[in-house]
Design a protein that fits this description.
A 3-stranded antiparallel β-sheet has the order 2-1-3, sandwiched between helices. The protein is mainly α and about 230 residues long. About 55% of the residues lie in helices and about 10% in strands. Strand 1 and strand 2 form a beta hairpin. It binds manganese (III) ion. Manganese (III) ion binds next to helix 2. Manganese (III) ion (MN3) binds next to helix 2.
Length: about 230
């Protein structure tokens, strides 16, 4: 015979056990990646305050929202890579699809963006330099085309350098937190965030000034790696 105390303990354990099991099974979800440099590393071109807020507040919010949206709308995608999640957008119920697109795009784009910048970068050189010359005529003409696409993006969005169809490289731009590969396009090799949160504290409304400064912090080594990967397919 069980005592009343034993029965209470047993029922408490029965209630607790599945809760604990669920807690342990719950996947961690996406986390904010560490920056590959200090917040002030890109000074004076991109200021430490902008980098701090952009990374620790804006990017963190995309990560948090993405985790919540996936748990609510597409639990089968929890634990997948961000590329797998974005490729699966059409399978996500409509109620959550645009939110996952915005926040999942935000997570991919910012993770990519941090890595194509560096302090005192050199380059481009070699095959990448040749591809830029072959595609745009010169480095200055590439910058003009890239800045033009970035400056003309109305409202918030991104400009991208992508592997091209007719020429080795092409410049495109996307609204919001979209990116070219979301809709079956090429994976970018370079990108620049032209949301006001990326430049407003230092450059105010002068997006072209921010774009001029951006070329001082482009990590051409990483862009060249991205280009090599893209060519391998
Ligand atoms: Mn941003």
């Amino acid at each position: 015979m069980f005592t009343r105390r034993q029965m209470l303990q047993a029922s408490a354990a029965a209630v607790l056990a599945p809760t604990l099991a669920r807690a342990q099974e719950k996947p961690a979800g996406f986390t904010l990646p560490k920056l590959p440099y200090a917040y002030d590393a890109l000074e004076p071109h991109i200021d430490a305050e902008t980098m701090t807020i952009h990374h620790s507040k804006h990017h963190q919010a995309y990560v948090n929202n993405l985790n919540d949206l996936l748990a609510k709308n597409a639990p089968a995608l929890v634990g997948k890579t961000i590329e797998e999640v974005l490729a699966a957008l059409p399978t996500i119920p409509e109620a959550g699809r645009q939110g996952v697109r915005n926040n999942g795009g935000g997570h991919w784009n910012h993770t990519f963006f941090w890595n194509v910048m560096a302090k005192n970068p050199a380059g481009p050189k070699g095959e990448l330099q040749k591809a830029i010359d072959d595609s745009f005529g010169s480095m200055d003409k590439f910058k003009a085309a890239f800045s033009d696409a970035a400056a003309k993006r109305f409202g918030s969005g991104w400009a991208w350098l992508v592997p091209g169809k007719e020429k080795p490289l092409a410049v495109v731009s996307t609204p919001n937190q979209d990116n070219p590969q979301m809709d079956g396009g090429a994976t970018p090799i370079l990108g620049v965030d032209v949301w006001e949160h990326a430049y407003y504290l230092k450059y105010r409304n002068l997006r072209p000034k921010y774009l001029e400064a951006f070329y001082n912090v482009v990590n051409w080594n990483v862009v060249a790696e991205n280009f090599a990967k893209a060519k391998k397919g």
